[in-house]
Design brief:
Layout lengths: L1 H20 L7 E2 L2 H7 L18 E6 L4 H16 L5 E6 L4 H6 L7 E5 L6 E4 L4 H12 L4
């Protein structure tokens, strides 16, 4: 009987350790253009003049609730937010509710993903891209190999 409880204890400890090591899913935070100014930077002079206020790189998804490709991109960005948790901040902005920001950035097509390094020029991609390609952009822009 003692061996049974020791074995059971071992299994329970193993399960607890594996659960503790599992990544908790991270949702991309939905923000407004007012929050963008506080969390990312002042967008009023356009994307190329954006001065980042964040201490980490930022990925911003500009989307609309009615946009099919935007809906398919959302879970991909949630997965990336989980993978880069603590290293990169992920935000999304509903274009229909935040037209001023969309106009400042010259949004002509959605989804539009903006990659904003701590230092340097922001870059954008428009359309639905696979996770692997978005990951390549993040690694290349934010974590270049030396």
């Amino acid at each position: 009987m003692r061996k049974f409880f020791l074995g059971l204890s071992f299994v329970l400890v193993s399960l607890l350790v594996s659960c503790a090591n599992a990544k908790t899913p991270t949702e991309v935070k939905n923000i407004t253009q007012a929050q963008f100014k506080t969390l990312v930077g002042d967008y009023s002079r356009g994307l190329n003049s954006l001065k980042q206020v964040n201490k980490k790189p930022v990925v911003v998804d500009i989307y609309a609730t009615w946009c099919g490709p935007c809906k398919r991109l959302s879970p991909i960005l949630n997965e990336l937010a989980t993978e880069y948790n603590g290293k990169v901040d992920f935000y999304k902005i509903d274009l229909d509710k935040n037209r001023e920001l969309g106009n400042a950035f010259g949004v002509q097509s959605i989804p539009m993903v903006i990659f904003i390094p701590v230092n340097g020029q922001p870059q954008t991609v428009m359309g639905l891209y696979p996770k692997a390609e978005l990951k390549e952009v993040i690694d290349y822009m934010f974590f270049p190999k030396k």
